[in-house]
Specification:
By secondary structure, this protein is of the alpha+beta class. It is built from three helices and four strands; from the N terminus they run αββββαα. Strands 1-2-3-4 form a four-stranded mixed β-sheet, covered by helices on one side. It starts with 5 loop residues before the first helix and ends with a helix.
């Protein structure tokens, strides 16, 4: 694969998945990821040192370290492709079923809490 910048990675992910579920402190507002929810994070830790990881309850969990941004972005692209369904959108029936299940769960939770 050719050299891949964080901005190009985000563009590829948006084309394939409709969003870029990654973030980077060095590239604010470029990715759509939320570090609080555990999306992958690309962090530049110094010259020729790029870390890929996630935050969990404020704790940094490093998955891999690379000598270039391009290598780190390629790793992220492979990880996201492996864990997401590219281009698959919920059908109206699937969306309605998902909302019904969520409503039922919320109602049951409220009942159990006496609300």
């Amino acid at each position: 694969m050719q050299d891949l910048t964080f901005e190009q990675l985000c563009g590829l992910l948006r084309d394939e998945f409709g969003s870029a579920p990654i973030s980077s402190p060095q590239h604010p507002r470029v990715g759509d990821g939320d570090p609080v929810t555990g999306d992958l994070i690309l962090r530049e830790d110094g010259p020729s040192s790029f870390a890929v990881g996630a935050q969990d309850r404020g704790q940094w969990s490093e998955l891999a370290r690379f000598a270039s941004e391009s290598e780190a972005c390629t790793f992220i692209l492979e990880q996201v492709r492996r864990t997401h369904r590219p281009g698959v959108r919920l059908t109206p029936g699937e969306k309605a079923e998902s909302e019904r299940v969520t409503r039922n769960f919320d109602d049951e939770l409220r009942r159990s809490l006496g609300l």
